[in-house]
Amino acid sequence: MKKSKIQNPKSKTKRILITGNEACGEGAIQAGCRFYAGYPITPQNELTAYMSKRMDEVDGIFIQAESELAAINMVFGASVTGARALTTSSSPGISLKQEGISYLAGCELPAVIVNIMRGGPGLGNIAPSQSDYFQATKGGGHGDYHSVVLGPASCQEMFDFTRMAFDIADRYRNTVIILGDGILGQMMEPVIINPRSQIRNPKKWALTGCKNRKPNIIRSLLLKQGALEEFNRKLQKKYDLIKRNEIRFEKYRTEDAEIIIVAYGTSSRISRACVNRLRKDKIKAGLFRPISLWPFPYNALKSQDKGKTKFLVVEMSMGQMLEDVRLAIQDDKRVHFYGRTGGSVPSEEEIIGKAVSCKL
Amino acid sequence: MEKIVFKKPDSMTDATMHYCAGCGHGIIHRLICEVIDELGIREKVIAVAPVGCAVIAYNYWDFDVSEAAHGRTPAVATGIKRVLPERVVFTYQGDGDLAAIGTSEIIHTANRGENITVIFVNNGVYGMTGGQMAPTTMIGQKTQTTKKGRSVKRDGFPLKISEMIALLEGARFVERTSVHAPKEILKTKKAIKRAFETQIKNEGFSMVEVLSMCPIYWGLSSVEACKRIEKEVIKTYPLGVLKG
Predict the structure, then answer these.
(1) Which of A59, A248, A307, A321 has the most crowded Cβ, counting Cβ within 10 A?
(2) Cβ contacts of residue A316 below 8 Å, gap of 6+?
């Protein structure tokens, strides 16, 4: 594969009203992803339907797989050839994909996986949730590995982050997870689709048939004494590089804040409104929004701490990102938590009430 | 003047095989390489290796090979073939990989009519993990997990998955062969060639089930293992073309 520049001069920037699920799918198309395999599950069905339509339009490949396992392994196969490949699902389906994600990590194959989270554990419900944070950011499948995890908070970011995810995946030969939720997937917002040219580097490791080169092998089995440790240490070096390059976060009114709400995705949107209302009541509140959930912006968060600053972690879970915030701040008594779970969404009043009580 | 009458296929590496004495994998690996040489497709082939004894087949095959998670082999091959339809893509799977943990993948891959080739090695036992019962284990056969022999009441029946696949409209060529005798080895090679040709002609899914010996976990000598296939195994798994 030669270094190629893909550009469509005819396409122009446009602003359209679409769901987050569709924005995510369009982001993949705009990234040059031409392979999708998925399995139906609510609340991400619009995404699969959108890909079936769009892949036809762009001469891409769409497969409705017989299972989540088959879907992630079809993506594995596509990635083996060097293609940009996507699979999407929601929580119970993402659990099934963990085997494949671990193998992708073990073979250092790039792929993008979207999780439109719903309530769990088990079959749970189909309402929005953020309870797969541990699974996404701490590994998820077996073995010493990490996926890059991005937490969008709008339909625009569903588009932007999915498109960006393919570049990150290729750059590091790593899996990238887009961690959305049922609200982000199903709500509609105007999204700016701004086509851009892209530079794609050749993937010399890909399997394409061994014409004019030695055979390539894609493997994760390393039985020789010490070989797996050596590989895992190499992976760790890659993860260290990712930690240096790919930390993303947003600060909102944190400069003079005495209480900083820490939230991502849907929770961060609600929390932003709370910050504005608290400020009107003369309470110096701010918002810190981690965008890269792995690598987590520990140092950036800690640098917001003025010694007496209170932190309120808001999640649609029983407290998962909370652990990373505690690791960052290293003073648990100043780190408070408010969460709703099982598909319930926190209200502004609830968060404001909690913020006022931790301020005291 | 020296004349070469027998040589290693070009598609094979010089590596020493790790397989046990009397195992059929070495023969089947070689047959595949002979066919690939004869069809002149070494530079177009992409193989997918299973989890099982043949996981490191890439040590012996001198062409592009990917591993796959246990049983997901046909799903991985599907992804490869859809992106690169001009390449010749095949999976190499054992009975645990194909007929147990990967039953769903093989059925649906065949049913979609994916234009790939499957080489299915059936030795009726899990070799790599120490000789446990496989779905294809014969009734009465003693294994690590059927010490008194496979019982229908406890363990159910041997799974005739090739017959099941032959029923699917997406499957174009399905044949069962064996490598227990020279004549059968030649027939196996012919079947493998036909399977690859089915793919090259874009006709759809092709599969060859090859009955193979596992003397170690059958508790038999190499010679006795070959005889067992001839006398017992082919009664449950009759040889011949099932489709195509």
Answers:
(1) A321
(2) A128, A129, A130, A131, A181, A266, A267, A339, A340, A341, A344, A345, A346
